[in-house]
Amino acid sequence: MEIHIIIIVVCVILSAYFSATETAFSTYNRIRVKNMAEKGNKKAALALKLSDNYDSLISTILIGNNIVNILASAMGTLLFAKIIVDNQDLAAAVSTAVLTIVVLVFGEISPKTMAKNSPEKFVMFSAPIINVMRIILSPFNFIFNGWQRLLAKIFKASDDQGMTEEELISIIEEAEEDGDIDKEESDLIKSAIEFGDLEVGDIFTPRIDITALPSSATKEMVAKVFTESGYSRLPVYDESIDNIVGIIYYKDFYTHAYKASIPLHEIIKPVIYVAITQPVNELMKELQEKQLHMAVVTDEFGSTAGIVTLEDILEEIVGEIWDEHDEIVQDIKEVGDKEYVVSGRANIENFFSELDIDEEIESVTVGGWAMEVLGKIPEVGDSFEEYGIAVEVTEMDGRRVESVHVFDKREDESDDDREDERNEEKDED
User: Fold this and answer.
1) pLDDT digits over 18-38, tens only?
2) pTM higher than the cut 0.70
3) Do both 139 and 267 map to the same domain?
4) Is there a single domain that holds both residue 147 and residue 25?
5) What percent of the chain has pLDDT over 90?
6) How many separate helices (H) and strands (E) can be counted in the chain?
């Protein structure tokens, strides 16, 4: 009888080990263990090697776990058969009930919970042991791996199994919720991930906001525009802004031309033209290669649609970059409970993201969206409702929407829950 108890205890301990190993290898932070391996930790390196052959690893774990659980069940049946001699059916039932509880609590739930709390430590502890067992059970692993490959061919997935951008962003958000990274780091990483989806049309400065100089400008005029605008570089056009011929840099102007006899056209630097649909990451690479800071954006008719700078591109990753000459403007300002004042120039995707609106529209700015919905050039006082929010045009600058007042009329989920509870109480009454 004592030998039966000893075998059962050993089997439950081994069951706990296999269960904890399975959980640890499926939840550990691979980057953290990889860093340890690169610093010379041999157990970490072995854990990574085992993970790379996960099919063999999981087969070893499952084979070992099933062997010890079946053995524990058999020993339990023999043990209770000796204790309850008169009724073998009762002995079998009691054995099943007791072993199920023991294995469930001590062989499954408890070890898995502990392994999940410290998976990296446990994979490094477990790696040498499970590696020996993998070698011992290699004949069985060979058979089961062949069976797995056969099933994989029969039930081959047609969809791409690679990680999508949405899944990667979800991982970042989970890491932020778990406290592994802070909000600023999370926003920076998500901006970098989404950077590849941006086009020049999403970030450029529109034509109406361009401060430019005619090629016939005098040095006094150039100095005045540099002083009033605060810009460090200005586009230069010939006859029309649709024909931008180059850029004058602040430093070049004051160093070489302003108090010297050198004509302005000799300090004008070249400019590149880009399509409004060009991916931003390609433009950034082109600007870096040509050592330029600005490009002219053209529309489908070849006219100047606007300009885009290297600073505009960087701001999409790190957020707004303000210098001493910038007037700090808050595009989306909360002025009350679910009440906002929004710049017409605010990016519509950023605005929708701020209000948790999952919609895609053609417009780039909030002002463009207002024009799209109203179907005309808005006037002060025009209003509309869309996606559960009320929008009123409060300021115009010529034909451009300068600002809108927004009121979010959607109910919170908590409000909906309370309303559902009240309705349920009424139904019960």
Assistant:
1) 999 999 998 888 888 888 888
2) no
3) no
4) yes
5) 15
6) 17, 12
